[in-house]
Amino acid sequence: MYDHVHAARPAPPASSRPEVPVTKPVAREPQRRNARSNRARILATARRELGRNPDTTLEELARAAGVVRRTLFGHFPGRAALLEALAEEASEVLRGAMAEAAGPDEPADRALAHFTLLMWSVGDRYRMLLALARHDLGVERVAEILAPARAEVTAILERGRRDGVFPAHLPPAVLSAGLEAMVVALLEQVNTGALEDDGTRTAVAMLIAAGVPERRARAVVEAVGPAVRAKSVPAE
């Protein structure tokens, strides 16, 4: 007899139901832009400060970059991660610079001078990596970064040898490895303050080591220098 007490009440019409507010997603793009800006600033600061002092700590880099310690460690949890990011950045810049290399129709001596001047601007920007390579990155990692440049120089030497521009005193791949080692050594001398060079002296030395007479080497570098420097990687 009491069944009517427990009978289900009809649901209110949809129009009378209370509306549940819909939460709009928070826009995260400004946060992402800020994070990218912080990361770029930290890397630029690391290039500058580590170039001055390879023993600079992450805490010191955070202060120099104008970010709190937590922000720096959020991007780079340790020194190895920061240096690897710099190595990858250097690799990308190197590949970008190589896109500006002389074409296959350019005489090989001019092409080698052109390429050396292009690479010097990249090497000068990241020369602090050379000071850190053996201890932090490892020689193999630096060799991996430089591999495309070595291959390009080898190709130029092979072409120059076929065209009679370079003598056949060493196999092209062997000579390319030797020239690479010379450039690395000269960049290290810039680190110590023993050498000042905008790439001109190194380019001349490269051509002489490749077998070009000194007078011709200087004339070639002087001829190609202005155009190459106009598109070289700017120092920061």
From TrEMBL:
Residues 1-38 are annotated as: Disordered. Residues 36-94 form the HTH tetR-type domain. Residues 57-76 bind DNA. Keywords: DNA-binding. Pfam families: TetR_N. It comes from the Bacteria. PANTHER family: HTH-TYPE TRANSCRIPTIONAL REGULATOR RUTR, POSSIBLE TRANSCRIPTIONAL REGULATORY PROTEIN (PROBABLY TETR-FAMILY). This is TetR/AcrR family transcriptional regulator. It comes from Streptomyces violaceolatus.
